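tool_log.txt
---
The assistant was asked to compare two proteins side by side. It first ran the structure predictor on the initial sequence, then on the second. Raw inputs and outputs are pasted verbatim so the downstream comparison step can read them without reformatting.
(1)
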Amino acid sequence: MLIAASVAACTTAGPGNDRADISPISQAALHAAQDAPEIKQAAILSKTVGNHKAIDDLLRKAADIGNPVALVDLGDRHSMNGTGSPEDLVAAVDFYRRAAAMGYAPAETALGKAYRLGEGAALDKAEAAYWYRQAALQKDATGQLLYGIALLGGEGVTKDEAQGMALIQAAADKPDVMAQMLLMTITMMRQATAASSAVSSNGKEDLSPSEIDHMATTAAKVI
């Protein structure tokens, strides 16, 4: 079964139940966004020291006309990997949300992580799962990995271990180093569970809710 079809078959629980999927940004629009002069100039300036204001000005100029790449870059600059001020984290979520609404996968995963960690938005696992799923539908490796973890433990979505593992494997096959590391971690955790004879009734060594929660939180922080 195709991974995209597998993802489409899984429905989120909670607020996202009846929400329509978002069409991916077209390749033509994405290329235009990436090739915007402001984006190219900001990339050049980022290699030098002391040009933060100039970079912000360029990105804001591009963001004002709806450039999703600029919106995500601004979101990342405000978030500072989750260490920004409360006001900056809220601003980052707004930037991510605007780009995610355009179907830009990096924005969808970033928005999902903000909801999963409660950074700039109220912690909402169902909302996080919804946005992870949108990126996973585009076969985005990060989206596949994060949505796979959500499915693995039923985090904001109906639990489906088989589909969760399939998505994590699909990300690992790209290859995605984080997904590959996670697969090894899951294998070791299951072996440890089996060794302690804590085997579920279906003959598989289930990961505990606390283990899944730790895995989902750690992945959202480091990816």
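(2)
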Amino acid sequence: MQIPLSALPMSLSWDVPPAGCRSDGAGSLLVDAPARTDLFVDPAGGEPSLGAPRLLGTPPDGDFQLRARIGVRFAAAYDAGTLLVWAGERSWAKLCYERSPQGVPMVVSVVTRDVSDDANGVEVPDGEPIRLRVSRLGPAWAFHAGVDGSRWSLVRYFRLGDPAAPVRVGFEAQSPTGEGCRVSFDDVAFVPERLTDLRGGA
């Protein structure tokens, strides 16, 4: 099923469907993640967890920035809403607004190159929605987080894999240990321009 969002230059479709989804057709989504759904390849071993709902589309060629304000109705550890870069089941990266096991919302990034590399970022103690941004810079990617959309903090700067490999980008919702959660993505925007200030906060 395709989900049109006029804020984006590409159509989106579900690789894994959610428990429920609503869209205004412009720049907002509401996604319900089913119980015990995750997107993670544990570096300690075991079967990959790839059952979290993900909504993806193929961006135009060239550099760009994809951003959204994300809110999560947190209930259990690791409930999260994410921006996702997807090149395959063992090649992907996500920038998450996630509940820690201690009950504190925080920014988390995961880069998967065969196995996942998981890193915690800043805490968001009040649990208010936060803005996340994914940027493509030639063969590299950058993850940023911010509060008001004018100042951004670098979370991660990385190369995912073969820069010539096709990628899709979009949204993911998850509830690995819980009974499900609701994630809102609003103020979705796509800027077809190269990010000019990687570390300075713009």
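---
observation on (2): The chain has no helices and 17 strands. The chain has a mean pLDDT of 96.
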